[in-house]
């Protein structure tokens, strides 16, 4: 009976810890938007080199997410000999309507960064190891032509590949990429900077990991309990 009690206690403790861990992972990422973090990294990099910080525009961020979706998960179309990019007309014909951005407030894009890879990485690594791949990327980030920024990250089909997109503009706050009704539309899957809703991309990834950990812990606890009662 003593062994049974120990086994049951072990099972209960493991289950409680795993539930807490899964909940913490989910809650942490609901308020932790990797697209916002990417914008923060870029602004930090700009100010370190005495360039001005850029205004994060949620309308532009949503357009960056639509820009990603235009690739339909095709990583090969990003960079290299088979590189493609959406036509500029897509901003007014498709991207803006999907985001609820008033077409009349679209402002010229002064720069764009796009990258894709199979595995998810942190925003800081996405910036330093993926997006900043050459001197041209560095020039775009530090250009003094920009005044606003919008970033997005999204996986495909609930997993990889993962796309990172950053759009820059020379728009003016409150008059460029204006959202209809002042509220952005929820776009899933993915995350974009300045969004007020939970990030469905990274949150879903880590919440799923937490769920898997919970079931693994439950199984381990069941084995310990079975050993304790002599199954």
Element layout with pairings:
Layout: H1 2-30, H2 34-48, E1 55-56, H3 58-69, H4 89-99, E2 109-117, H5 123-131, H6 135-142, E3 148-156, E4 159-169, E5 191-192, H7 200-229
Parallel strand pairs: 1-3
Antiparallel strand pairs: 2-4, 3-4, 3-5
Helix pairs in contact: 1-7, 2-5, 3-4
Account of the 3D structure:
Strands 1, 2, 3, 4 and 5 form a 5-stranded mixed sheet that branches. Helix 3 packs across helix 4. Residues 2-31 and 201-229 have low confidence and may be disordered. This protein starts with a helix and ends with a helix. Helix content is 49%, strand content 14%. The radius of gyration is 22 Å and the shape is globular. It is of the alpha+beta class and 231 residues long. The longest helix is centred in the last third of the chain and has 30 residues, at 200-229. Strand 3 (148-156) and strand 4 (159-169) form a beta hairpin. 36% of the residues are buried. It has helices at 2-30, 34-48, 58-69, 89-99, 123-131, 135-142, 200-229, and strands spanning 55-56, 109-117, 148-156, 159-169, 191-192.
């Amino acid at each position: 009976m003593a062994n049974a009690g120990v086994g049951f206690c072990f099972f209960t403790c493991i289950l409680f810890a795993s539930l807490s861990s899964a909940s913490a992972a989910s809650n942490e990422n609901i308020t932790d938007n990797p697209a916002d973090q990417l914008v923060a990294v870029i602004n930090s990099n700009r100010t370190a080199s005495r360039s001005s910080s850029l205004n994060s525009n949620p309308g532009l961020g949503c357009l960056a997410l639509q820009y990603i979706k235009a690739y339909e998960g095709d990583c090969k179309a990003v960079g290299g000999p088979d590189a493609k990019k959406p036509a500029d007309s897509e901003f007014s014909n498709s991207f803006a309507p999907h985001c609820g951005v008033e077409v009349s407030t679209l402002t010229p894009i002064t720069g764009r960064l796009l990258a894709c890879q199979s595995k998810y990485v942190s925003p800081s690594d996405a910036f330093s190891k993926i997006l900043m791949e050459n001197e041209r990327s560095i020039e775009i980030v530090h250009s003094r032509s920009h005044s606003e920024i919008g970033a997005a990250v999204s996986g495909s089909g609930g997993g990889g590949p993962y796309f990172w997109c950053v759009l820059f503009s020379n728009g003016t706050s409150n008059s460029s990429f204006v959202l209809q009704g002042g509220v952005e539309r929820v776009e899933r899957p993915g995350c974009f900077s300045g969004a007020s809703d939970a990030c469905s991309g990274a949150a879903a990834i880590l919440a799923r990991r937490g769920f898997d950990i919970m079931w693994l812990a439950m199984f381990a606890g069941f084995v310990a309990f079975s050993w304790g009662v002599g199954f």
